[in-house]
Amino acid sequence: METPTPIERVPRLELRRICKNFPGVRALTDVDLALYPGEVHMLLGENGAGKSSLMKVLFGAYRADAGEIYYDGEPVAIESPADAKRLGIAVIFQEFSLVPHLSIAQNIYLGREPRNRFGLVDHRRMHADAAAVLARLGLAYDTRTHAADLGVAQQQMVEIAKALSHDASVVVMDEPTAAISDREADALFAVVRGLRDAGVAIVYISHRMKEVFDLGDRVTVLRDGRLVTSMPAADATPDELIALMVGRQVGTVYERRHFGAPGEIALDVRGLTTATGVNGVDLQVRCGEIVGLSGLVGAGRTEVVRAVFGADPVKGGRVEIFGEPASGGPHAIAARGVGLIPENRKQEGLALRRSVHENLLAASLWRLFPTGWYRADRARRATRALIETLRIAPGQPGKRARFLSGGNQQKIVIGKWLSAGCRLFIFDEPTRGIDIGAKTEIFNLIERLVEQGAAVLLISSELSEIVHVCDRAYVMRDGAISGELPRERLSEQNILSLAMHGG
Predict the structure, then answer these.
(1) Which of 299, 231, 291, 251 is nearest to 425 (CA)?
(2) Is a pLDDT exceeding 70 seen at residue 248?
(3) What is d(CA 453, CA 492) in angstroms, rounded to the nearest whole number?
(4) For 367-392, what is each residue's pLDDT tens digit?
(5) What is the DSSP string of 225-248?
């Protein structure tokens, strides 16, 4: 008697050999992903590994350049979010999409409001349905509250409720617990398990190893836009998954030439706590060293440096700059010799409609002209010296900043603080969006600064940059420091280990 052949399961949704290119960047290369009913599929990868791009292809926000998509074994075309919704695919992205001046109920049912027999919106039913969806998450929000009046965690939960209200057969959750409390996370996990038991296929993107093993049935790892592996979660360990995430061949990376002895303390932070989620952060930066501040997106790195720079209010703890307590807003902190090169240079670091000359001198007019009398010849000489030092191209002081490349725009932001005579530089993602050549120039400049006695605090999501450039690094997780790595222990794997599960 022959043994019967097992019935092969058909994926609810299957992506085959998906490719996606952007100008100068190959975001996805031949990626496969199979999602089965009644399964929680964890999707892992470093920042920039291709997770979000793949999910946007799945949801129709991006069109794949190559590859095929199958739903219940049949080929389908998902060319827009509307196509995805018709197939029962719901995605909860990290970026909130709520309309601030609409109520919770209006946001949940926006564009598909229940109607009465006269064709008018049935507000009573809409609020009742919204309350029922929220109750599935263990929430009792007033559904008439405007989204603008909700906290970040509450907005996240409404986004989740909005996705659940579609009765989707495929649900994608992109870091859903990044901004919610443990109690709210417990309620969410119960919903995830309930959806799985009801036969829903779930994609869950997370950087938290505990969630991977508490919730996951299968795990897929992406690296540099390619599929590394897909396996049952029970067959993996945290260290194995981290090794798979960072195991790529590192390309052209700037190598630090010289590590000197650190000098005086430039920045001393103790117990820093803010309303933006920073919780008891301790760190120290000395002159003559580059100190990394690493961690995953949303860990609180930018929130720390904004508080240090006086851009966000401090609730608790203390900040000292060159031995003196820090107080006041950004202008007062800058006057103490601190420069912040922000993550979003176009919105926060540059006046794009102003000239290179005006941007370079924006922070140093008080230093160049202490009496208040502006001298055009002196200003021109200062600008020309900075353009030559930084090799800003084109070297035209009158050119508007918005017409320069990303690398040259970044040089202008740095030059602004050089002209102000800063001794402590805070770099927040300084190489984001610039080419390899410009990256090398930026790191050359940073190294020259510390060789001349400046102190540098460097935030980068590129772990290889932290490893190759920094004297040591702090790693953040959930708004707190999860560990400090000295030079001899500074590796991508150790950083990820601290960032994802605290050691």
Answers:
(1) 291
(2) no
(3) 27
(4) 888 888 888 888 889 898 888 888 88
(5) TEEEEEEEGGG--HHHHHHHHH-S
Distances (CA, A) of 34 to 12, 70, 164, 218, 240: 8, 9, 21, 10, 21
Contact 456, 425 (CB under 8 A): yes
What per-residue string of b and e applies to 257-289 under the rule 16 or more CB within 10 Å gives b?
eeeeebeeebbbbeebbbebbbbebebbbbbbb
Mapping DSSP to helix (H, G, I), strand (E, B) and coil, where does residue 70 land?
strand
Position 457, amino acid:
L
**Rounded Cα distance, 308 and 305, in Å:** 5
Beta partners for 21? 26
Rg (CA), the chain: 25
Q: Which residues contact 195 (CB under 8 A, 6 or more apart)?
A: 164, 171, 202
pLDDT digit string (tens) for 177-206?
766 666 777 878 888 898 899 899 999 998
pLDDT at 5: 44
Q: How far is CA 120 from CA 116, 126, 193, in A?
A: 6, 12, 36
Q: Which among 406, 410, 356, 343 is positioned nearest to 382, based on CA atoms?
A: 356
Residue 236 bridge partners (DSSP): none
DSSP assignment letter at 402: G
CA distance 405 to 170: 41
User: Measuring CA to CA, which residue among 446, 454, 475, 476 is closest to residue 338?
Assistant: 454
Determine phi and psi for 498, rounding to 5 degrees: -70, -35
Q: Is 151 exposed, middle or buried (0-12, 13-18, 19+ CB in 10 A)?
A: exposed
Contact 460, 290 (CB under 8 A): no
Bridge partners of residue 25, in order along the sequence: 22
pTM above 0.85, yes or no: no
* Residue range 20-48, pLDDT digits in tens: 998 767 889 999 999 999 999 999 987 66
> What would the two tokens of residue 237 be?
């360990």
CB contact at 8 A, 8 and 206: no
C-alpha distances (whole Å) from 297 to each of 208, 294, 429, 479, 496 are: 12, 9, 11, 11, 12
CB 22 within 8 A of CB 41: no
Side by side, which strands form the sheet with 13-22?
25-35, 13-22, 66-71, 74-76
Spatial contact of 272 and 307, defined as CB atoms under 8 Å apart = yes
CA 95 to centroid of chain Cα atoms:
10
